[in-house]
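Quick one, T. Sequence first:
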Amino acid sequence: MLPLALSTCWNSSRHTDGAEMLREIRDMGFTRAELGHGVRYSLWPGVLDAIDEGVIEISSLHNFCPVPMGVMKPSPNCFELTDPRPILRQQAINATIETIHNAAKLEVPVVVMHLGHANPYGINRELEKLAARGKLYSREYVAAKLKAVELRRKLFPEVWERLHESLLPIVEAAAKEGIKLGFENRERYEEFPSEEEFQTVLDAFPAETVGYWHDFGHAARKEYLGWSDHRPSLERFAPRLIGCHVQDCLPPDEDHLGLGKGEVPFADLLPLVQAEAVPVLELAPSVSREDVLASLELWKTLSCKISAATPT
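C-alpha coordinates:
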Protein backbone atom coordinates (compact mmCIF):
# COMPACT_ATOMS: atom_id res chain seq x y z
CA MET A 1 0.00 0.00 0.00
CA LEU A 2 1.08 3.57 -0.60
CA PRO A 3 2.32 5.66 2.36
CA LEU A 4 -0.46 7.23 4.41
CA ALA A 5 -0.96 10.96 3.84
CA LEU A 6 -2.40 13.31 6.46
CA SER A 7 -5.06 15.78 5.40
CA THR A 8 -4.48 19.40 6.31
CA CYS A 9 -8.07 19.49 7.56
CA TRP A 10 -6.49 18.45 10.86
CA ASN A 11 -4.26 21.52 11.23
CA SER A 12 -5.02 24.19 8.59
CA SER A 13 -7.37 26.16 10.87
CA ARG A 14 -4.65 26.88 13.43
CA HIS A 15 -1.91 27.94 11.01
CA THR A 16 -1.23 31.28 9.35
CA ASP A 17 1.72 30.03 7.30
CA GLY A 18 1.14 27.25 4.78
CA ALA A 19 4.76 26.13 4.93
CA GLU A 20 4.59 25.68 8.71
CA MET A 21 1.34 23.76 8.28
CA LEU A 22 3.07 21.24 6.01
CA ARG A 23 6.24 21.12 8.12
CA GLU A 24 4.16 20.15 11.14
CA ILE A 25 2.78 17.18 9.20
CA ARG A 26 6.24 16.18 7.99
CA ASP A 27 7.74 16.45 11.46
CA MET A 28 5.15 13.99 12.75
CA GLY A 29 6.51 11.31 10.45
CA PHE A 30 4.27 11.67 7.41
CA THR A 31 5.87 11.75 3.97
CA ARG A 32 2.68 12.87 2.20
CA ALA A 33 -0.14 15.34 2.82
CA GLU A 34 -3.50 16.08 1.27
CA LEU A 35 -4.29 19.77 0.79
CA GLY A 36 -7.78 19.90 2.25
CA HIS A 37 -10.76 22.12 1.55
CA GLY A 38 -9.86 24.34 4.52
CA VAL A 39 -6.68 25.73 2.95
CA ARG A 40 -7.26 29.47 2.81
CA TYR A 41 -5.71 31.76 0.19
CA SER A 42 -3.53 33.29 2.91
CA LEU A 43 -1.88 29.87 3.36
CA TRP A 44 -1.28 29.31 -0.35
CA PRO A 45 2.05 31.19 -0.75
CA GLY A 46 3.57 29.16 2.08
CA VAL A 47 2.21 25.95 0.57
CA LEU A 48 3.91 26.77 -2.73
CA ASP A 49 7.18 27.57 -0.94
CA ALA A 50 7.08 24.29 0.99
CA ILE A 51 6.45 22.29 -2.17
CA ASP A 52 9.30 24.07 -3.97
CA GLU A 53 11.57 23.23 -1.03
CA GLY A 54 10.53 19.57 -1.11
CA VAL A 55 9.17 19.66 2.44
CA ILE A 56 6.57 16.99 1.71
CA GLU A 57 4.85 15.24 -1.19
CA ILE A 58 1.26 16.23 -1.91
CA SER A 59 -0.97 13.20 -2.46
CA SER A 60 -4.16 14.97 -3.47
CA LEU A 61 -6.21 18.17 -3.36
CA HIS A 62 -9.69 18.25 -1.86
CA ASN A 63 -12.09 20.46 -3.79
CA PHE A 64 -12.21 23.41 -3.35
CA CYS A 65 -8.54 24.20 -2.82
CA PRO A 66 -7.71 26.84 -1.90
CA VAL A 67 -10.98 28.19 -0.50
CA PRO A 68 -12.69 30.24 -3.26
CA MET A 69 -12.37 34.01 -2.99
CA GLY A 70 -15.33 35.57 -1.21
CA VAL A 71 -16.18 32.45 0.78
CA MET A 72 -15.86 33.42 4.42
CA LYS A 73 -16.14 29.97 6.01
CA PRO A 74 -14.21 27.11 4.37
CA SER A 75 -16.57 24.41 3.14
CA PRO A 76 -16.39 21.78 0.40
CA ASN A 77 -20.12 22.40 -0.16
CA CYS A 78 -20.06 26.21 -0.44
CA PHE A 79 -20.99 25.76 -4.11
CA GLU A 80 -22.70 22.64 -5.43
CA LEU A 81 -22.85 21.02 -8.85
CA THR A 82 -26.44 19.91 -8.14
CA ASP A 83 -27.68 23.38 -7.19
CA PRO A 84 -30.96 24.15 -9.02
CA ARG A 85 -29.77 27.74 -9.53
CA PRO A 86 -27.67 27.93 -12.72
CA ILE A 87 -25.49 30.82 -11.52
CA LEU A 88 -24.44 28.90 -8.40
CA ARG A 89 -23.83 25.72 -10.39
CA GLN A 90 -21.53 27.72 -12.63
CA GLN A 91 -19.63 29.00 -9.60
CA ALA A 92 -19.16 25.38 -8.51
CA ILE A 93 -17.90 24.45 -11.98
CA ASN A 94 -15.48 27.38 -12.11
CA ALA A 95 -14.10 26.74 -8.61
CA THR A 96 -13.65 23.04 -9.34
CA ILE A 97 -11.79 23.70 -12.57
CA GLU A 98 -9.56 26.15 -10.69
CA THR A 99 -8.74 23.37 -8.21
CA ILE A 100 -7.91 21.06 -11.11
CA HIS A 101 -5.57 23.67 -12.57
CA ASN A 102 -3.91 24.08 -9.17
CA ALA A 103 -3.39 20.33 -8.94
CA ALA A 104 -1.81 20.31 -12.39
CA LYS A 105 0.54 23.18 -11.52
CA LEU A 106 1.65 21.33 -8.39
CA GLU A 107 1.88 18.01 -10.27
CA VAL A 108 -0.62 16.45 -7.88
CA PRO A 109 -2.45 13.55 -9.56
CA VAL A 110 -5.83 13.51 -7.76
CA VAL A 111 -8.65 15.90 -6.87
CA VAL A 112 -11.25 14.65 -4.37
CA MET A 113 -14.78 15.95 -4.94
CA HIS A 114 -18.18 16.20 -3.28
CA LEU A 115 -20.94 16.17 -5.89
CA GLY A 116 -23.89 17.82 -4.15
CA HIS A 117 -27.21 17.37 -2.36
CA ALA A 118 -30.76 16.32 -3.19
CA ASN A 119 -34.00 15.74 -1.34
CA PRO A 120 -35.06 14.30 1.11
CA TYR A 121 -33.28 16.96 3.18
CA GLY A 122 -32.94 16.23 6.88
CA ILE A 123 -33.72 12.52 6.70
CA ASN A 124 -30.43 11.45 8.29
CA ARG A 125 -30.99 13.65 11.34
CA GLU A 126 -34.57 12.37 11.62
CA LEU A 127 -33.37 8.75 11.63
CA GLU A 128 -30.56 9.51 14.09
CA LYS A 129 -33.09 11.04 16.49
CA LEU A 130 -35.29 7.96 16.23
CA ALA A 131 -32.28 5.74 16.87
CA ALA A 132 -31.37 7.79 19.95
CA ARG A 133 -34.89 7.13 21.29
CA GLY A 134 -34.41 3.39 20.90
CA LYS A 135 -36.40 3.19 17.67
CA LEU A 136 -33.66 2.05 15.30
CA TYR A 137 -35.32 -0.17 12.66
CA SER A 138 -38.74 0.28 14.28
CA ARG A 139 -41.86 0.48 12.08
CA GLU A 140 -41.76 4.28 12.37
CA TYR A 141 -38.07 4.27 11.40
CA VAL A 142 -38.53 1.96 8.42
CA ALA A 143 -41.54 3.91 7.17
CA ALA A 144 -39.58 7.19 7.22
CA LYS A 145 -36.66 5.55 5.44
CA LEU A 146 -38.83 3.99 2.71
CA LYS A 147 -40.62 7.29 2.12
CA ALA A 148 -37.24 9.00 1.68
CA VAL A 149 -36.03 6.36 -0.79
CA GLU A 150 -39.22 6.65 -2.86
CA LEU A 151 -38.85 10.44 -3.05
CA ARG A 152 -35.19 10.19 -3.99
CA ARG A 153 -35.85 7.70 -6.79
CA LYS A 154 -38.52 10.02 -8.16
CA LEU A 155 -36.17 13.02 -8.09
CA PHE A 156 -33.06 11.23 -9.34
CA PRO A 157 -33.50 11.96 -13.09
CA GLU A 158 -33.67 15.74 -12.72
CA VAL A 159 -30.85 15.93 -10.16
CA TRP A 160 -28.65 13.64 -12.24
CA GLU A 161 -29.32 15.72 -15.35
CA ARG A 162 -28.06 18.86 -13.57
CA LEU A 163 -25.04 17.07 -12.15
CA HIS A 164 -24.11 15.39 -15.42
CA GLU A 165 -24.27 18.69 -17.29
CA SER A 166 -22.10 20.32 -14.62
CA LEU A 167 -19.53 17.53 -14.66
CA LEU A 168 -18.95 17.49 -18.42
CA PRO A 169 -16.63 20.56 -18.54
CA ILE A 170 -14.98 19.49 -15.28
CA VAL A 171 -14.12 16.01 -16.54
CA GLU A 172 -12.92 17.53 -19.82
CA ALA A 173 -10.59 19.90 -17.93
CA ALA A 174 -9.28 17.08 -15.75
CA ALA A 175 -8.60 14.83 -18.74
CA LYS A 176 -6.73 17.64 -20.48
CA GLU A 177 -4.54 18.20 -17.40
CA GLY A 178 -4.03 14.49 -16.68
CA ILE A 179 -5.78 14.75 -13.31
CA LYS A 180 -7.94 12.00 -11.81
CA LEU A 181 -11.17 12.96 -10.07
CA GLY A 182 -12.23 10.97 -7.00
CA PHE A 183 -15.98 11.17 -6.39
CA GLU A 184 -16.40 10.73 -2.63
CA ASN A 185 -19.10 8.73 -0.86
CA ARG A 186 -20.85 10.94 1.66
CA GLU A 187 -22.21 10.43 5.17
CA ARG A 188 -25.83 11.52 4.70
CA TYR A 189 -28.51 10.13 2.40
CA GLU A 190 -29.45 13.64 1.27
CA GLU A 191 -26.00 14.01 -0.27
CA PHE A 192 -25.64 12.95 -3.88
CA PRO A 193 -25.09 10.31 -5.11
CA SER A 194 -26.24 7.58 -2.75
CA GLU A 195 -24.65 4.14 -2.99
CA GLU A 196 -27.64 3.06 -5.08
CA GLU A 197 -26.98 5.91 -7.52
CA PHE A 198 -23.18 5.86 -7.56
CA GLN A 199 -22.70 3.31 -10.35
CA THR A 200 -24.77 5.40 -12.76
CA VAL A 201 -22.53 8.39 -12.08
CA LEU A 202 -19.29 6.43 -12.48
CA ASP A 203 -20.46 4.69 -15.65
CA ALA A 204 -21.07 8.05 -17.33
CA PHE A 205 -17.37 8.94 -17.37
CA PRO A 206 -14.12 7.26 -18.42
CA ALA A 207 -12.20 5.35 -15.76
CA GLU A 208 -9.00 7.02 -16.94
CA THR A 209 -10.24 10.30 -15.45
CA VAL A 210 -13.05 9.55 -12.98
CA GLY A 211 -13.09 7.11 -10.09
CA TYR A 212 -14.48 6.36 -6.67
CA TRP A 213 -13.11 7.83 -3.44
CA HIS A 214 -14.05 5.81 -0.35
CA ASP A 215 -14.48 7.43 3.06
CA PHE A 216 -14.51 4.77 5.77
CA GLY A 217 -16.22 6.93 8.38
CA HIS A 218 -18.97 8.03 6.02
CA ALA A 219 -19.66 4.45 4.98
CA ALA A 220 -19.84 3.40 8.63
CA ARG A 221 -22.42 6.08 9.41
CA LYS A 222 -24.58 5.00 6.49
CA GLU A 223 -24.30 1.35 7.46
CA TYR A 224 -25.46 2.09 11.01
CA LEU A 225 -28.64 3.76 9.72
CA GLY A 226 -29.26 0.99 7.20
CA TRP A 227 -28.63 2.96 4.02
CA SER A 228 -25.93 0.60 2.77
CA ASP A 229 -23.59 -2.20 3.84
CA HIS A 230 -19.98 -1.09 4.21
CA ARG A 231 -18.05 -4.08 2.92
CA PRO A 232 -20.30 -4.88 -0.09
CA SER A 233 -20.25 -1.20 -1.11
CA LEU A 234 -16.46 -1.08 -1.02
CA GLU A 235 -16.26 -4.37 -2.92
CA ARG A 236 -18.68 -3.10 -5.55
CA PHE A 237 -16.79 0.10 -6.30
CA ALA A 238 -13.26 -1.25 -5.73
CA PRO A 239 -12.57 -1.61 -9.48
CA ARG A 240 -12.94 2.19 -9.81
CA LEU A 241 -11.23 3.04 -6.50
CA ILE A 242 -8.75 5.93 -6.70
CA GLY A 243 -8.19 6.54 -3.01
CA CYS A 244 -9.72 6.69 0.43
CA HIS A 245 -10.18 8.87 3.47
CA VAL A 246 -9.15 6.85 6.49
CA GLN A 247 -10.95 7.79 9.70
CA ASP A 248 -12.69 5.94 12.49
CA CYS A 249 -16.32 6.35 13.50
CA LEU A 250 -18.61 5.81 16.48
CA PRO A 251 -22.25 5.54 15.41
CA PRO A 252 -24.42 7.31 14.81
CA ASP A 253 -22.43 10.42 13.83
CA GLU A 254 -19.03 10.70 15.56
CA ASP A 255 -16.61 10.46 12.67
CA HIS A 256 -13.17 11.78 11.73
CA LEU A 257 -11.79 10.03 14.81
CA GLY A 258 -8.30 8.59 15.19
CA LEU A 259 -7.87 4.96 14.19
CA GLY A 260 -8.83 2.59 16.98
CA LYS A 261 -11.16 5.16 18.58
CA GLY A 262 -14.27 3.88 16.83
CA GLU A 263 -15.82 0.75 15.40
CA VAL A 264 -14.66 0.63 11.77
CA PRO A 265 -13.24 -2.89 11.11
CA PHE A 266 -10.14 -1.75 9.24
CA ALA A 267 -8.44 -5.16 9.44
CA ASP A 268 -11.37 -6.62 7.51
CA LEU A 269 -11.84 -3.77 5.03
CA LEU A 270 -8.34 -2.58 4.12
CA PRO A 271 -7.46 -5.75 2.15
CA LEU A 272 -10.12 -4.60 -0.35
CA VAL A 273 -8.12 -1.43 -1.10
CA GLN A 274 -5.82 -1.82 -4.08
CA ALA A 275 -2.13 -1.20 -3.58
CA GLU A 276 -2.16 1.80 -5.94
CA ALA A 277 -5.06 3.59 -4.20
CA VAL A 278 -4.19 6.84 -2.38
CA PRO A 279 -4.77 6.58 1.40
CA VAL A 280 -5.36 9.81 3.34
CA LEU A 281 -5.86 10.11 7.09
CA GLU A 282 -8.65 12.68 7.45
CA LEU A 283 -9.10 13.66 11.09
CA ALA A 284 -11.01 16.39 12.90
CA PRO A 285 -8.99 19.34 14.26
CA SER A 286 -10.01 18.22 17.76
CA VAL A 287 -8.07 14.95 17.46
CA SER A 288 -4.95 15.13 19.64
CA ARG A 289 -1.44 14.98 18.24
CA GLU A 290 -0.94 11.75 20.20
CA ASP A 291 -3.95 10.16 18.50
CA VAL A 292 -2.69 11.25 15.08
CA LEU A 293 0.66 9.59 15.77
CA ALA A 294 -1.08 6.48 17.13
CA SER A 295 -3.20 6.34 13.97
CA LEU A 296 -0.09 6.42 11.81
CA GLU A 297 1.47 3.57 13.79
CA LEU A 298 -1.71 1.49 13.62
CA TRP A 299 -1.86 2.07 9.87
CA LYS A 300 1.71 0.86 9.49
CA THR A 301 0.91 -2.27 11.51
CA LEU A 302 -2.19 -3.03 9.47
CA SER A 303 -0.34 -2.39 6.20
CA CYS A 304 2.44 -4.79 7.17
CA LYS A 305 -0.07 -7.52 8.05
CA ILE A 306 -1.93 -7.04 4.77
CA SER A 307 1.31 -7.10 2.77
CA ALA A 308 2.43 -10.28 4.54
CA ALA A 309 -0.90 -11.97 3.77
CA THR A 310 -0.97 -10.90 0.11
CA PRO A 311 0.30 -13.58 -2.33
CA THR A 312 3.25 -12.44 -4.45
